[in-house]
Design a protein that fits this description.
By secondary structure, the chain is of the alpha/beta class. It has 2 domains: 272 residues, NAD(P)-binding Rossmann-like Domain (Rossmann fold); 190 residues, N-(1-d-carboxylethyl)-l-norvaline Dehydrogenase, domain 2 (Orthogonal Bundle). It contains 18 helices and 13 strands. Strands 6-3-2-7-8-9 form a 6-stranded parallel beta sheet, sandwiched between helices. Strand 4 and strand 5 form a beta hairpin. The radius of gyration is 23 Å and the shape is globular. The protein starts with a strand and ends with a helix.
Length: 472
């Protein structure tokens, strides 16, 4: 079934770039750029176009096709009722690939038109030691940027050099808005960037303290990776030739603390909520959507599923998530998510994407609520099952159907890898993502976990899952 393409109604030649965004991936293009595209229809909001800034060599696969398309692309919003809508997005006015043009990227920070710097660098991109919560200054790439500030290779060095250029140019205050899935992401961004800047340049650190604000925000929209088959399918459906299309669910939410030192877009006109404190929204989203994705990912992947919607149409996994939300999360987060979002056939997210970077996801999404459950002596069966499946996924790298796979967990340490290789399952509980609490000392946890580890190996995921979800 074909889908009509909704075009934007503004002249891009009349749009100024007031936002510099670091990390032009699918989520940014389906979320922040999507909202901004709608806002630019307002004649009074013409100064809030986006200049994208991509820092990594692997970004070429998105940057080059976008540049060939004058930075235009399409977003297909997939309705749960089967009614999809496609949109032409024009809010990405400019796009700089720092690998190719480092100087242009630095200069853009010093542009007086830029009032907001936003970023999507992923949960693992903040270089935080999970055992201490501190920024890791000792990392080799970080040390390079501390010693060679004019040749940055990390986002921290790049932002520092850019802000230094802004300070010297007298370009004025600026807001740094994180759009990553982290609790108190603005506070986290301030801590890590200020840690780096303070170690590199005391004068700049003093300037940033007075001239940069870091509001917290909460973002939510399921946006899968786009495969070549997806590109073909979307273009055929939309009647387009987009080399880098995006598709996403029909649900979207963005909540931001209203702390913008240099002005901001009127995003509230297009559905963004501004608040004094995002904590309640963050807790609800991270503990429900993101934690549920993590709980679902490893057992469903190991059982042979590769698409989220396929797994969610299996009543065993649907029951696992519903019980996790209703029993494990609702006592701490009073507004439950609708699991219908996960079963949206049109979105069809890859489970492998949800499995990626578990070392960064468990500490943020699962462990905070687990600590509360331990405090309240709650039933930990489903979370224990998740952790046992995570170990099985990392250690054996073959699913229950005999299909081998590669893991993508870049923030596992050398010590973590040693613990994964250990034949003693209890060693796995010392993994860095779990260090916010000593799971080995939790009454009853080790016994249940050890039993699940053995059953996963002998009986497989689905046999164990059935004893969990169908128990009376």
């Amino acid at each position: 079934m074909s889908v009509d393409l909704v075009s934007f109604g503004y002249n891009r030649n009349q749009i100024g770039t007031g936002i510099l965004h670091i990390g032009v991936g699918n989520f940014h293009r389906a979320h922040q750029a999507f909202y901004t595209n709608r806002l630019l229809e307002d004649p009074g909001q013409k100064n809030w176009g986006i200049c994208g800034l991509s820092l990594l060599p692997e970004d070429e696969r998105i940057v080059k096709p976008l540049q060939l398309q004058n930075n235009l692309y399409t977003v297909t919003v997939c309705g749960r009722n089967g009614n999809d809508r496609a949109y032409s997005i024009g809010s990405l006015i400019d796009l700089i690939w720092a690998v190719e043009n480092l100087e242009a990227g630095i200069r853009k920070f010093a542009d007086k038109q830029i009032k907001i710097i936003t970023c999507t660098i992923t949960e693992g991109g903040y270089n935080i030691d999970r055992s201490t919560g501190e920024f890791m200054l000792g990392k080799e790439q970080v040390q390079h940027d501390l010693n060679y500030p004019d040749k940055p290779i990390t986002v921290f060095g790049f932002v520092a050099e850019g802000l230094r250029s802004r300070m010297k140019n007298g370009a004025g205050p600026v807001t740094f808005l994180s759009c990553d899935n982290l609790q108190h992401n603005g506070d986290t961004a301030k801590r890590v960037f200020m840690s780096f800047i303070s170690a590199q340049d005391k004068e700049l650190a003093a300037w940033v303290a007075q001239n940069v604000t870091f509001p917290n925000s909460m973002v939510d929209r399921i946006t899968p990776a786009t495969t070549p088959d997806d590109t073909k399918r979307l273009n055929e459906k939309n009647g387009t030739r987009d080399k880098v299309p995006v598709y996403c669910e029909d649900f979207s939410q963005w909540v931001i603390e209203d702390n913008f030192i240099a002005g901001r877009p009127a995003w509230e006109k297009v559905g963004v909520a501004f608040t004094k404190d995002v904590s309640a929204f963050e807790t609800m989203k991270l503990s429900l959507l993101n934690a549920s994705h993590t709980i679902l990912s490893y057992p469903s992947f190991l059982s042979g599923y590769r698409k989220v919607d396929d797994a969610m149409h299996d009543p065993r996994f649907e029951r696992l998530l519903r019980d996790y939300m209703d029993i494990d999360i609702t006592p701490y987060v009073p507004t439950p998510e609708n699991t219908e979002r996960f079963g949206n056939r049109s979105v069809s997210d890859q489970i492998s994407r949800l499995c990626a970077d578990g070392a960064s996801k468990y500490p943020v999404y699962v462990m905070p609520n687990l600590i509360k459950m331990i405090r309240d002596h709650a039933d930990m069966t489903r979370v224990t099952f998740s952790i046992a499946c995570y170990r099985h996924y990392l250690k054996y790298r073959v699913d229950d159907k005999g299909v081998s796979y590669e893991i993508n967990d870049p923030w596992l340490t050398m010590e973590d890898l040693r613990l994964i290789e250990s034949n003693d399952p209890i060693d796995f509980l010392n993994l860095s993502p779990f260090r916010s609490i000593d799971l080995k000392s939790v009454p009853g946890f080790v016994e249940v976990y050890d039993r699940m580890v053995q059953e996963l190996k002998s009986r497989g995921v689905l046999a164990l899952l059935e004893t969990i979800v169908w128990k009376t």
